[in-house]
Amino acid sequence: MAVTKEKYKTYNNVFDNFTLRNLFKLSSQGHFDELESPLFIGKESNVFTALKDDKRVIVKIYRLETCDFNRMYDYIKYDPRYLSLKRNKRRIIFGWTQREYRNIMKAREAGVIVPTPYVCLQNIIVMEMIGSIKPSPRLKDLMPDDHKSIKKLFDDVISNMIKLHKAGLVHADLSAFNILNRDGKPVFIDFSQSTPFNSPRGMESLERDAKNISNFFIKFGIKTTKEKIIKKILA
Ligand SMILES: Nc1ncnc2c1ncn2[C@@H]1O[C@H](COP(=O)(O)OP(=O)(O)O)[C@@H](O)[C@H]1O
Ligand SMILES: [Mg+2]
Questions:
Q1: What is the pLDDT of residues 35-77, one digit of tens each?
Q2: Are 71 and 93 in contact (CB under 8 A)?
Q3: Is 189 a pocket residue for ligand 1 (Cβ < 6 Å)?
Q4: What is d(CA 214, CA 129) in angstroms, rounded to the nearest whole number?
Q5: Which ligand is in closest contact with the Cα of 44?
Q6: pTM (predicted TM-score)
Q7: End-to-end CA distance of the chain
Q8: How confident is the model at residue 214 (pLDDT cuts 50, 70, 90)?
Q9: How far is CA 69 from CA 13, 57, 66, 167, in A?
Q10: Is the dihedral of CA 74, 79, 85, 86 positive or negative?
Q11: How many angstroms separate the CA atoms of 124 and 79, rounded?
Q12: Confidence band (pLDDT; 50, 70, 90) for 2?
């Protein structure tokens, strides 16, 4: 059941007209029924859960007004797929959104465990919500307490990193904030900074990802180093 335009008017204070129209369009196409309260307000985007029949999906909306588009441009300009983007604010935001969508799609095709992306429209991405009733917690918020499960989780993170690398991508913002814990299995999210490995910042990004992951898991008793992780990935 799609929601009426009236319903979307109640979001007027939250969204600009352009975003409002796109949300209305997506909901009339049946991608979701209505947005719930915001799950997360980030630097550039607002993330909502939305009802869809008796389930929930995630709606990630890049803000057109308060985006730090200089930072976005700084990242995306090195991505060979987006070399022709000019410094036009909206086009950069749409490119950024589409790039995240394509990255998740590519990761998924490579067998990395990620949310299924459903649709992308200009500054909005609709994707599977990880978790059944509520969104799954981040590794930052929930870690298993026995060594065996922590080791298993770590091994699964590395195996996802390897698959992503085989697909030619590097996540570039991988940390305990962007990995969800779905019943002890890691799910990678937030591919907005993800870039082809063989682009100018590829190796630097992989090193940062490996460092974040090793620092985090070392605190939980895993014996590893950034170098060991990189070696496994590049093997
Ligand atoms: N598919 C998803 N399923 C469940 N929770 C999600 C999903 N995507 C995002 N979230 C939640 O929303 C938060 C922000 O999303 P994220 O994509 O990381 O945005 P940002 O770019 O602002 O960091 C995440 O930390 C996570 O808690
Ligand atoms: Mg994030």
A1: 998 999 888 899 999 999 999 999 999 988 766 777 788 888 8
A2: no
A3: yes
A4: 27
A5: 1
A6: 0.92
A7: 50
A8: very high
A9: 22, 26, 8, 27
A10: positive
A11: 20
A12: very low
Span 150-194, pLDDT tens digits: 999 999 999 999 999 999 999 999 999 999 999 999 999 999 999
Determine the residue type at 186: P
Two tokens at 221? 């008793």
Ligand 1 center–CA 166 separation, angstroms: 24
Distance of CA 213 to the CA centre of its chain: 17
Crossing angle of the two packed helices 226-234 and 202-219, in degrees rounded to 10:
130
Give the per-residue pLDDT at 74. 81
Report how far Cα 197 is from the mean position of its chain's Cα atoms.
Answer: 17
Indicate if 68 belongs to the active site: no
Q: Does ligand 1 have an atom closer than 6 angstroms to the CB of 46?
A: no
Length of the chain: 235
Number of H helices, E strands in the chain: 7, 9
Using alpha carbons, select from 33, 193, 26, 194 the residue that is nearest to residue 121. 26
Using an 8 Å Cβ cutoff, are 59 and 72 in contact? no
Residue 222 C-beta-side C-alpha neighbours within 13 Å: 26
